[in-house]
């Protein structure tokens, strides 16, 4: 597990290799990740968007920008957490992801950029 705290928001990430499949003549490697966002602040915050940079060992980089996470824009009161799971597919058995969330401090209505720590995606057989 990797973790990062930005402005009192703790982001923890766990990953898993889910297997590979063939599409045409190309192998694809499937990974899942579970993210827990914990509000350690004294004020409520709301997550409204995400930014991902997904990199695989074949030097392909994909940028993903979107509203919320898995169709939700969670509100986190002080001490609350939000956990969700998602996944990605790479062309290589090794890669990484990193990014950030855009959140809003509700009482102050100030926007915050909360870092998501870089986490590794790797199929066990590919690591020596």
From TrEMBL:
Recorded superkingdom: Bacteria
Kindly state a single biological-process term from the GO annotations of this entry.
error-free translesion synthesis
Q: Name one Pfam family in it.
A: DUF525
Q: Which InterPro entries match?
A: ApaG_domain (IPR007474), ApaG_sf (IPR036767)
The residues covered by the ApaG domain are 3-128
Which PANTHER family does UniProt cross-reference here? F-BOX ONLY PROTEIN 3, POLYMERASE DELTA-INTERACTING PROTEIN 2
Name the UniProt record assigns to this protein: Co2+/Mg2+ efflux protein ApaG
According to its UniProt entry, this protein's organism is: Aureitalea marina
């Amino acid at each position: 597990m990797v973790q990062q705290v930005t402005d009192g928001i703790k982001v923890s990430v766990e990953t898993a290799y889910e297997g590979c499949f063939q599409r045409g003549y190309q192998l694809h490697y499937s990974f899942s990740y579970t993210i827990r966002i914990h509000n350690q602040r004294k004020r409520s915050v709301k997550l409204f968007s995400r930014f991902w940079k997904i990199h695989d060992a074949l030097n392909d980089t994909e940028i993903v920008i979107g509203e919320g996470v898995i169709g939700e824009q969670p509100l986190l009161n002080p001490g609350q957490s939000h956990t969700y799971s998602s996944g990605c597919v790479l062309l290589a058995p090794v890669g990484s992801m990193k990014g950030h969330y855009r959140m809003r401090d509700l009482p102050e209505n100030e926007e915050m950029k909360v870092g998501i720590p870089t986490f590794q995606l790797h199929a066990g057989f590919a690591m020596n």
